[in-house]
Amino acid sequence: MKQLPAATVRLLSSSQIITSVVSVVKELIENSLDAGATSLDVKLENYGFDKIEVRDNGEGIKADDAPVMAMKYYTSKISSHEDLENLTTYGFRGEALGSICCVAEVLITTRTAADNFSTQYVLDGSGHIISQKPSHLGQGTTVTALRLFKNLPVRKQFYSTAKKRKEEIKKVQDLLINYGILKPDVRIVFVHNKHCLQ
Ligand code: ADP
Ligand code: MG
């Protein structure tokens, strides 16, 4: 028996957290709601396999936090397990963004109320910032995940039939409808291949 290399362990554990297109959308939406967003734009291209993008008008991510925003087990939501008693957010484990980075190419554009302009960060597979540049978006955060599961042939096979891909879109739509019911004050728009579905 051999111990698996750290990079393989990371990929396998990430693929247990991010299991599908709908699980990426769910994690990103929950982050947006945790950030106090009242407007969400969800865009998919090619059933989410080419691109998944969630844009919000929430509080944004401070430049100081950007270097760790996609590092696993970094979170702004709790400081220790005692805080679990008083949890008011969807997220708290600090695993979602790091896991998405491991199974897709991720860009994060964000701006807080205190910033003069937004910054777009390009992340690598372990959630480190590769590059950053100023951009033109308003307050809030846009997370873009490109080429989901490109490094996981088994999962790509799972979505190889048209029927399964369509089911996945339906699941995203149902998820958004559920959040719409749960949060009636939040505006949610869903676009697939440039067609508005809701
Ligand atoms: P968790 O939600 O468990 O804290 P994530 O990996 O989903 O972990 O996100 C890591 C951190 O990045 C969050 O704790 C939050 O501080 C920040 N973050 C992620 N998405 C957003 C967003 N849409 N708006 C503002 N901050 C965000
Ligand atoms: Mg989260």
Automatic annotation (TrEMBL):
Superkingdom as given in the UniProt entry: Eukaryota
SUPFAM superfamilies cross-referenced by the UniProt entry: ATPase domain of HSP90 chaperone/DNA topoisomerase II/histidine kinase (SSF55874)
Matches recorded under CDD domains: HATPase_MutL-MLH-PMS-like
Segments forming a coiled coil: none
Any single Pfam family the record assigns to this protein: HATPase_c_3
GO biological process: mismatch repair
Cellular compartments per GO CC: MutLalpha complex
InterPro entries, sorted: DNA_mismatch_repair_CS, HATPase_C_sf, MutL/Mlh/PMS, MutL/Mlh/Pms-like
GO molecular function, one term: ATP binding
Family: Belongs to the DNA mismatch repair MutL/HexB family.
Protein's name in the database: PMS1 protein homolog 1 isoform X7
Source organism of the structure: Physeter macrocephalus
Gene giving rise to this polypeptide: PMS1
